[in-house]
Amino acid sequence: MKEFNYKWTLKDAVFTKDKGNVFSCFACGGGSTMGYKLAGFDVLGCNEIDPKMIEAYKVNHNPKYAYLEPIQTFKLRTDLPDELYNLDILDGSPPCSSFSMAGSREDGWGKKKKFREGQALQVLDNLFFDFIDLAKKLQPKLVIAENVKGLLLGNAKQYLRKIYREFDLAGYHVQHWLLDASKMGVPQRRERVFFIALRKDLAAPFMVQKDMFTVVPELNLEFNEQPIKYGELALYNGESITDFAMRAWLARKPQDKSIADSKAHVPGFKVTDMNTFYVKEDTVCQTLTSKGRHGSLLYSKPIRLSKEEFCMIGSYPQDYNFITNQWGYLIGMSVPPVMTAQIAKQIYLQWLSKL
């Protein structure tokens, strides 16, 4: 039996809270928070800009501290409790649409935008550096930040170099890993970059020569769990698609990966929905996105993924209370809890347990 199961419930989970304490920024609905809790950490609270998201966070996690405000003002607070200056891990997932290969990329860099309706205008590509400013202030033992694969590609590498430089100035040795959730016990192909920074004054026992010019703290994050195909969890209880979409679905071909591919087979259809992927029983599900249930469509039946299936594919608990949030959007925006749990377990075993 897997230590971290993709099908689980909050009411039956055992959170030991004996591995260290964590504070989460850009917390969304608490995907990473649940991962740390599954791995035995005590998550003290969160910072989040979205009022609907933080309400879901409060209902499901009952945090000791919850700050609804932009990180730009949160990092300047002078009234933070002492516990936040004695963290084992500062966690964060700075909004990453600026670097996503599915977005406007370079055309959107440096421009103010709203990450979603109801939020303030912000320069999204600066939020990572606001997060590092907070780390410099709080000085946790470790900092863990998740982002999209696009941050490693093309002109975005300039940001990657700046991230390394800012962590160094903040007093940390930082490294990054490109990890795939499908190799970590999560039923979806989801590649994400994880930056893991260890405070320099704690790093001496773990330092190894990486190459001729680089000495870094050693950390093994190789995961090779058996991929979980959609057919292993399929319930076939999602909503049916509309007549309009049905025309494209009926025209599907075996090689089609998205509904857009199928629309190309139908005369008169505009080829749209490039990111509405087919889900097939003999493959691992594509990355869940902020499009929610509208970003996926079964190939074998004209239905979408159901809430229960979405929770399993995102490794979210089956009894999570989404309150007024769209469940597909919230899960698609979140770090899969099992993905975080796998990382947190290794960080505890290899570093924190030895400090």
Tell me briefly what this model is:
This protein has 355 residues and is of the alpha/beta class.
Low-confidence stretches: 100-105
Largest sheet: 7 strands, mixed
Q: For this structure, what is the CATH homologous superfamily of the largest domain?
A: Vaccinia Virus protein VP39
Please give the radius of gyration in angstroms. Answer: 21 Å
Q: How many domains?
A: 2
Helix and strand layout, with pairings?
Layout: E1 21-25, H1 31-38, E2 42-48, H2 51-61, E3 65-68, H3 71-74, E4 89-92, E5 112-113, E6 122-123, H4 127-138, E7 142-148, H5 157-170, E8 172-180, E9 191-199, E10 207-209, E11 215-217, H6 243-250, H7 259-263, E12 277-279, E13 296-298, H8 307-313, H9 327-333, H10 337-350
Parallel strand pairs: 1-2, 1-4, 2-3, 4-7, 12-13
Antiparallel strand pairs: 5-6, 7-9, 8-9, 10-11
How is this structure best described in words?
This protein has 355 residues and is α/β, with parallel strands linked by helices. The protein has two domains: 21-225 and 334-354, Vaccinia Virus protein VP39 (Rossmann fold, 3-Layer(aba) Sandwich); 230-331, no CATH class. The protein is 25% helix and 17% strand. It contains ten helices and 13 strands. α4 packs parallel to α5. Mean pLDDT is 91; it is low at 100-105.
